[in-house]
Amino acid sequence: LPASMYTEIQRERPDGGNILTHPDYIDGNPDLIKPKKLLNPVKASKSHQELHRELLMNHKRGLGVESKPELQRVLEHRRRDLLIKQKKEEEEAKKLQSPFEKELLKRHQRLDQLEKEQEKQEDHAPEFIKVKENLRRTSTMTGEEKAA
């Protein structure tokens, strides 16, 4: 059955099944405006043209696409060296902390930990205790304001 349908289609189209129509401007009619090919904005841009030119030159020289220009390699090397230097300085600064600074840091961490524990305890307190504490605060504030 499918073979017979194919033969019927072939009989209907004597040109071999070409669906595309031929354009009218090939006839040479001077009244018709001939279409121009549209420019690709990417290919028309200066940066794309310069990049393409550089790629062609590198290909002619035998350089790979992965190889970077010398300036870019130098800049990346400098950035890498700078980051390494900064990390070393930070590590030295940590090592050179005086015992006093270390003790201060420990105390600060302990205070932070105690504050967090107090906040947790306050969160578990019943509602009426929280309200009572708020009332005490407001009453002491108004007393201080009257004295001032």
TrEMBL record:
<keyword id="KW-0009">Actin-binding</keyword>
<dbReference type="GO" id="GO:0045202">
    <property type="term" value="C:synapse"/>
</dbReference>
<feature type="region of interest" description="Disordered">
    <location>
        <begin position="107"/>
        <end position="148"/>
    </location>
</feature>
<keyword id="KW-0965">Cell junction</keyword>
<keyword id="KW-0206">Cytoskeleton</keyword>
<dbReference type="GO" id="GO:0005886">
    <property type="term" value="C:plasma membrane"/>
</dbReference>
<dbReference type="GO" id="GO:0003779">
    <property type="term" value="F:actin binding"/>
</dbReference>
<dbReference type="GO" id="GO:0001725">
    <property type="term" value="C:stress fiber"/>
</dbReference>
<keyword id="KW-0966">Cell projection</keyword>
<dbReference type="InterPro" id="IPR009533">
    <property type="entry name" value="FAM107"/>
</dbReference>
<protein>
    <recommendedName>
        <fullName>Actin-associated protein FAM107A</fullName>
    </recommendedName>
</protein>
<dbReference type="GO" id="GO:0005925">
    <property type="term" value="C:focal adhesion"/>
</dbReference>
<keyword id="KW-0770">Synapse</keyword>
<keyword id="KW-1003">Cell membrane</keyword>
<dbReference type="GO" id="GO:0043005">
    <property type="term" value="C:neuron projection"/>
</dbReference>
<keyword id="KW-0539">Nucleus</keyword>
<keyword id="KW-0175">Coiled coil</keyword>
<keyword id="KW-0472">Membrane</keyword>
<dbReference type="GO" id="GO:0005634">
    <property type="term" value="C:nucleus"/>
</dbReference>
<keyword id="KW-0346">Stress response</keyword>
<keyword id="KW-0341">Growth regulation</keyword>
<dbReference type="GO" id="GO:0030041">
    <property type="term" value="P:actin filament polymerization"/>
</dbReference>
<dbReference type="GO" id="GO:0051017">
    <property type="term" value="P:actin filament bundle assembly"/>
</dbReference>
<keyword id="KW-0963">Cytoplasm</keyword>
<comment type="function">
    <text>Stress-inducible actin-binding protein that plays a role in synaptic and cognitive functions by modulating actin filamentous (F-actin) dynamics. Mediates polymerization of globular actin to F-actin. Also binds to, stabilizes and bundles F-actin. Involved in synaptic function by regulating neurite outgrowth in an actin-dependent manner and for the acquisition of hippocampus-dependent cognitive function, such as learning and long-term memory.</text>
</comment>
<dbReference type="Pfam" id="PF06625">
    <property type="entry name" value="DUF1151"/>
</dbReference>
<feature type="compositionally biased region" description="Basic and acidic residues">
    <location>
        <begin position="107"/>
        <end position="136"/>
    </location>
</feature>
<dbReference type="GO" id="GO:0032956">
    <property type="term" value="P:regulation of actin cytoskeleton organization"/>
</dbReference>
<keyword id="KW-0131">Cell cycle</keyword>
